[in-house]
C-alpha cells in the first residue's frame, strides 16, 4: 500500500489555525488534499464558532489567482475566516550567502569597454588600458588589470580589488581613488590586492589577505 504524502498540515495556534501547505508538490495535488481535509478527515475540528485561519505557502510564490483558489476552498466552511495567505521569505543567512557568492565571467575588456556587475566578480581575462570593470562587491581579475577597476561602487569600503597582474591606470574602492600607479613604489605587481585602511587605499600581496579577513581562515579548520 502506497504511503499517503501529506501536503497540507493543520496546526492549532493561540488565535486560530495555521494551514501549512507543501511548497514542492503539484498545485492540483495540494488543492485536492486541502479540499479532502476540509470535507472529510478534519471535518470535526473545523466546525463550530468562527475560526481564524492563516495560510503559509512556504517558499512557493503563488499568483493572485492561485491564492483565490485556496480562498474559495476554505470559504466553503462558513466558520473559517482567512486572515492571511503568505509565502515565507528566505532566511537572512541564505540571503547573505547569496550575496557573498562569486559570479565568474571570462573574456577581455578592451579600450572603451565597461563591464558592470552586481555582487562579487571573478573575471578570467585581461582588462586592457582604457577598459573599465565595475562591481558593487569585490573584483578578482585572473589576468592583467591594466585599465580601471572600481569595486564597492555603491559605497562598500570593505570591498577589495585583486589581480594576477596589477598594473591599472586607476583603482577605486567605494569613493576612494588610488594614487597614480607610479607612486605605489611597485614596478611589476603580481598577485596583489587593493583595500581600504584608515580611509586610504593600500596595496599588498594577495597571500596577506588573511590579515584583512582572519575569520575566513579560521572557518577552514
From TrEMBL:
Keywords: Cell cycle, Cell division, Septation
Stored Pfam families: MinC_C (PF03775), MinC_N_1 (PF22642)
Superkingdom of source: Bacteria
Domain Septum formation inhibitor MinC C-terminal residue range list: 105-203
InterPro entries per UniProt: CAP/MinC_C, MinC, MinC_C_sf, MinC_N_1, Septum_form_inhib_MinC_C
Residues in Septum site-determining protein MinC N-terminal domain copies: 8-85
Similarity field: Belongs to the MinC family.
Record function comment: Cell division inhibitor that blocks the formation of polar Z ring septums. Rapidly oscillates between the poles of the cell to destabilize FtsZ filaments that have formed before they mature into polar Z rings. Prevents FtsZ polymerization.
Subunit details: Interacts with MinD and FtsZ.
Protein name per UniProt: Probable septum site-determining protein MinC
Native organism: Paenibacillus hexagrammi
Amino acid at each position: 500500500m502506497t504511503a499517503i504524502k501529506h501536503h497540507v498540515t493543520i496546526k492549532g495556534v493561540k488565535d486560530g489555525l495555521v494551514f501549512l501547505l507543501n511548497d514542492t508538490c503539484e498545485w492540483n495535488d495540494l488543492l485536492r488534499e486541502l479540499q479532502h481535509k476540509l470535507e472529510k478527515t478534519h471535518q470535526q475540528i473545523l466546525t463550530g464558532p468562527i475560526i481564524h485561519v492563516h495560510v503559509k505557502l512556504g517558499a512557493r510564490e503563488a499568483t493572485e489567482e492561485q491564492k483565490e483558489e485556496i480562498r474559495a476552498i476554505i470559504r466553503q466552511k462558513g466558520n473559517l475566516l482567512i486572515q492571511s495567505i503568505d509565502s515565507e521569505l528566505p532566511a537572512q543567512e541564505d540571503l547573505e550567502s547569496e550575496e557573498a557568492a562569486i559570479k565568474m565571467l571570462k573574456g577581455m575588456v578592451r579600450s572603451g569597454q565597461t563591464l558592470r556587475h552586481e555582487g562579487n566578480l571573478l573575471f578570467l581575462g585581461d582588462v586592457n588600458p582604457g577598459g573599465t570593470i565595475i562591481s558593487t562587491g569585490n573584483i578578482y581579475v585572473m589576468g592583467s588589470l591594466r585599465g580601471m577597476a572600481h569595486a564597492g561602487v555603491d559605497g562598500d569600503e570593505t570591498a577589495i580589488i585583486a589581480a594576477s597582474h596589477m598594473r591599472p591606470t586607476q583603482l577605486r574602492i567605494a569613493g576612494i581613488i588610488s594614487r597614480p600607479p607610479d607612486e605605489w613604489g611597485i614596478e611589476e605587481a603580481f598577485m596583489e590586492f587593493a583595500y581600504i585602511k584608515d580611509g586610504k587605499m593600500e596595496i599588498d600581496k594577495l597571500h596577506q589577505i588573511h590579515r584583512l579577513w582572519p575569520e575566513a581562515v579560521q572557518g577552514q579548520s
